[in-house]
Write a structure and sequence with these properties.
The complex is a heterodimer of chains A (215) and B (422). Chain A is mainly alpha-helical and 215 residues long. Chain A has a domain of 131 residues. Chain A contains 9 helices and no strands. Chain B has 422 residues and is mainly alpha-helical. Chain B has one domain. In chain B, 63% of the residues lie in helices and 0% in strands. Chain B has 19 helices and no strands. In chain B, helix 1 packs antiparallel against helix 2 and helix 14 runs parallel beside helix 17. Chain B is globular and about 70 Å long. The relative contact order of chain B is 0.09. The chains are: A mainly alpha (215), B mainly alpha (422). At the A-B interface, helix 9 of A face helix 7, helix 8 and helix 9 of B. Chain B: Its EC number is 7.2.1.1. Chain B: It is found in: Cell membrane. Chain B: One of its GO terms (biological process) is sodium ion transport. Chain B: Belongs to the NqrB/RnfD family. Chain B: Keywords: Cell inner membrane, Cell membrane, Flavoprotein, FMN, Ion transport, Membrane, NAD, Phosphoprotein, Sodium, Sodium transport, Translocase, Transmembrane, Transmembrane helix, Transport, Ubiquinone.
């Protein structure tokens, strides 16, 4: 990449695969299970987290030399809460139905471990540009997994993708449904999302055995 | 050259190749291997894993045959009921007939074939990938699965559920002997949560009831628990002997408590299954049933309550309807997922019976809960064992403390003993 040095592009690319926040660091699982029943909600969640984490990392990074370390968690919480409120208000103003679907989980971005984790581990020790890249990279890694889970859950659970009936109409019995296919209701339940996350982790680690932890 | 020798020769040829485990599985299924242990002295019991599995399958064969006849009988009985014809069951008159058996062949046999076929393919694939021998664990699971699903379950659903159950329920933990959940019940639970309309209601339990629904020929396939859950006990025409011998609608193989009892006695006699688990599970179910009966007779629950039908059901009848007997005898006693300690087995079994009846009464969508109760206790089995073992250690340490130790080299001896007991 011409725009970024090799070290900087690693900040974006590493969290996508070998240092993924969900499958490797096992952070942010709660929201990955709760809001991924529809692909659209997954995408909106991914974008929201990208905004909060990218902006938050920059803000914390700029303030890193003036935050007293004893109260840094509170300062971080204030920053992330302010950003989350912006996201929440924007969603309520422009995508009301979707903000209903996401319900409390937008607010709960505040407690998403990935965000506090990146603030603590990266933004407090690095400059704003690199912190920004790190925030974008980690939220891309988070969003990637969210979208994969959302894709399978919506496709198999409701037979739709982004609301389009890609497998046919279950009531009029067209497409696959004419053959006797039925939607898998288990896919819409959170336990199945956990199993899907598990399968993604399984696939990733069997493709790259270096990721497997020693007992 | 006999077939046996040919197979032995083939085995030598395949040795070290990728397909070897798949071939060995077929080979040792038919014959004992031609190898002997080379080093050391070993005492070998005759009841290896394969023998254990075959014994359980033998105990299931009568249940399977009965279920094939019952599949047809329930179908024709439902048609008679829809036409207002009164039907009395007679074993040789209208039960053991070719007509009934034929429906068993076209409906029950495909379930068995699909369950074994898909399950064994998954097992073979995993054996080849991992390079170990094919495990025998699926032999019993494959027979249990068709017996615990409704008869009209579409075969593709069963295949998906079997793949899920074997992979997620068993192989990810490391295969037979390592699984924490009973694979057959994992498959049942997957079907229940994924396709609830095919697993509950009053249509799926009798052959063809789904297809005929809404037509003038519509037939009902309501189970006894279904009647009770809707407070319609008066409409039910089944006698106690019908319930006990199994001439009732239900999952394919769960209806005949009589044959399940015989199978259970056979398993206890051959020391395959634990009598402690079976007995304590029966006790647990009776205790919970008695408590519910007590609640009704003390007047806390009126006839208008939606729980009245199931709560007022005489406590011991819970054992002869639904899947409780089948679950207790063939599922709860799974040696891998159940408790291992004798004292633990009592707790484990008791709670299976207790929770089964509790879920059966309180589950709003589906008046049965045996599979949920067993899966729940599967999860708790290691915890139960842990506390039983800790309790034993504590007891023995106390004994050690109170023991009079001879004055000679007492310090080192007591330390040694402590190390052994903990």
């Amino acid at each position: 990449m011409g725009l970024l040095s090799k070290k900087d592009s690693g900040l974006i690319l590493d969290p996508l695969a070998d240092n993924n926040p969900i499958t490797i660091q096992v952070l942010g699982i709660c929201s990955a299970l709760a809001i991924t029943a529809e692909l659209k909600a997954s995408i909106v969640m991914a974008v929201s987290v990208m905004f909060v984490l990218g902006m938050g990392n920059v803000v914390i990074s700029l303030m890193r030399n003036i935050i007293p370390s004893k109260i840094r968690i509170i300062v971080q919480l204030v920053v992330v809460a302010a950003l989350v409120i912006i996201v929440d208000q924007v969603l309520k103003a422009f995508a009301y139905e979707l903000s209903k679907t996401l319900s409390v989980f937008v607010g709960l971005i505040i407690t998403n471990c990935i965000i506090m984790g990146r603030f603590e581990a990266f933004a407090l020790a690095n400059g704003p540009w690199r912190s920004f890249l790190d925030g974008i990279g980690n939220s891309l890694g988070y969003g990637l997994i969210l979208i994969i889970i959302g894709f399978f859950r919506e496709l198999l659970g409701s037979g739709t993708l982004l609301g389009f009936k890609v497998l046919g109409d279950p009531i009029a019995k067209t497409g696959l449904y004419a053959l006797g296919y039925e939607n898998n209701g288990f896919m819409l339940l959170s336990p199945m999302a956990l199993i899907v996350v598990g399968i993604i982790i399984w696939v990733q680690r069997s493709r790259n055995p270096a990721l497997v932890e020693e007992n | 050259m006999s077939l046996k020798n040919k197979l032995h020769n083939l085995k030598e040829e395949y040795k070290g190749k990728k397909m070897a485990p798949a071939f060995n599985a077929i080979h040792t299924f038919l014959y004992a291997p031609n190898e002997t242990t080379h080093s050391g002295s070993h005492v070998r019991g005759a009841d290896d894993l394969k023998r254990t599995m075959n014994t359980v399958i033998m105990a299931l064969i009568p249940v399977l045959l009965f279920s094939m006849f019952n599949a047809g009988y329930q179908h024709f009985a439902a048609i008679d009921a829809a036409n207002g014809v009164v039907r009395e069951v007679s074993v040789f008159g209208n039960f053991l007939t070719w007509e009934n058996f034929w429906i068993g062949i076209i409906k029950v046999l495909p379930l068995v074939v699909v369950s074994y076929g898909v399950g064994l393919i998954v097992e073979f694939i995993f054996a080849v990938i991992k390079g170990h021998e094919v495990e025998e664990g699926y032999l019993v699971t494959g027979m249990l699965v068709p017996l615990i699903v409704p008869i009209d379950t579409p075969l593709w659903m069963l295949s998906i559920a079997v793949i899920f159950g074997v992979v997620i329920g068993k192989e990810v933990f490391g295969g037979t002997g390592m699984n924490i959940l009973n694979p057959a019940l994992t498959i049942r639970a997957f079907l229940f949560f994924a396709y609830p309309t095919w697993m509950s209601g009053d249509k799926v339990w009798v052959y063809d009831a789904v297809n005929l629904a809404g037509t003038p020929d519509a037939i009902s396939g309501e189970t006894i628990l279904g009647y009770l859950a809707q407070n319609k006990a008066a409409e039910m025409t089944y006698s106690i002997s019908d319930m006990f011998f199994g001439f009732i609608p239900g999952s394919v193989g769960e209806t005949s408590t009589f044959l399940i009892l015989l199978g259970g006695l056979f398993l206890i006699f051959s020391k395959i299954a634990s009598w402690r688990i079976m007995l304590s599970a029966v006790l647990g179910a009776l205790v919970m049933g008695l408590m519910f009966n007590g609640v009704v007779s003390s007047g806390w629950i009126g006839e208008t309550s939606k729980f009245y039908g199931l709560m007022s059901f005489t406590f011991w009848k819970h054992l002869i309807v639904g899947g409780l007997a089948f679950g207790i005898v063939y599922m709860a006693t799974d040696p891998v997922t159940g408790s291992q300690t004798n004292k633990g087995k009592w707790f484990y079994g008791f709670f299976i019976g207790f929770i089964s009846v509790m879920i059966r009464v309180f589950n709003p969508a589906y008046p049965e809960g045996v599979f949920l109760a067993i899966l729940l206790m599967n999860v708790f089995a290691p915890t139960i064992d842990h506390y039983v073992i800790r309790g034993n250690v504590k007891k023995r340490l106390k004994r050690l403390k109170n023991a009079t130790i001879l004055p000679n080299d007492s310090a080192s001896k007591s330390e040694k003993l402590k190390a052994e007991t903990v």
